[in-house]
């Protein structure tokens, strides 16, 4: 899945570690990622955390998408900072899961992210057959 993630690769995000329900990714904040306040735009920090989350929740095999996510920005990141996001599975139940991701600059926490996942029924590679593939509930028996 990560090899096909064009957005993450174009931002220089690297997959450092992966395991069942876990993942570690890294990104360096570039000048293009800095906002008008001179700090890393929160969207890039979110994207880094979301990438770690995606790698962790897809480690079980079935195609899994985000059902929702929240982030708390704890400290600003700056141009040149190397950020590392570590994702850990908290629980899986049915086709759903909960994952926590810490984004750090060295030992300092920059952000905390919580993602909620949903596995797509059917194929492990094709999400087009499932109306809930985009994370929105459909009217199938399973979504009731």
The H/E string reads HEEHEEEE
- Roughly how many Å apart are the termini? 29 Å
Tell me the Rg in angstroms. 16 Å
Mean pLDDT: 87
* Percentage of residues in strands: 35-45%
Largest sheet, order of strands side by side?
A: 1-2-4-5-6-3
SS element count, helices: 2
Query: Unreliable stretches, pLDDT < 50, 5 or more residues?
Result: 125-144
Quick structural overview:
This protein is mainly β and 144 residues long. Helices cover 15% and strands 40% of the residues.
List keywords for this structure.
single chain, 144 residues, mainly beta, six-stranded antiparallel beta sheet, 6 strands, 40% strand, globular, disordered C terminus
Layout of helices and strands, plus pairs?
Layout (H helix, E strand, L loop, with lengths): L5 H5 L3 E6 L2 E7 L13 H16 L6 E10 L8 E12 L2 E10 L2 E12 L25
Antiparallel strand pairs: 1-2, 2-4, 3-6, 4-5, 5-6
Explain the overall architecture.
It is a single chain. The protein has helices spanning 6-10, 42-57; strands at residues 14-19, 22-28, 64-73, 82-93, 96-105, 108-119. It has 144 residues and is mostly beta strands. Strands 1-2-4-5-6-3 form a six-stranded antiparallel β-sheet, with helices on one face. The two termini are 29 Å apart. The model is unreliable at 125-144 (pLDDT under 50).
């Amino acid at each position: 899945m990560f090899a096909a993630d064009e957005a993450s690769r174009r931002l220089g995000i690297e997959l450092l570690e992966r395991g069942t329900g876990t993942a570690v990714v890294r990104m360096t904040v570039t000048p293009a990622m800095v906002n008008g306040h001179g700090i890393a735009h929160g969207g890039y920090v979110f994207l880094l955390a979301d990438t770690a989350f995606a790698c962790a929740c897809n480690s079980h095999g079935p195609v899994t998408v985000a059902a929702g996510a929240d982030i708390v920005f704890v400290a600003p990141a700056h141009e040149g900072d190397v950020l590392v996001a570590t994702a850990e599975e908290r629980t899986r139940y049915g086709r759903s899961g909960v994952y926590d991701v810490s984004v750090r600059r060295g030992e300092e926490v920059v952000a905390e992210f919580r993602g909620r996942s949903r596995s797509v029924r059917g194929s492990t590679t094709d999400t087009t057959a499932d109306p809930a593939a985009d994370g929105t509930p459909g009217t199938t028996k399973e979504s009731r």
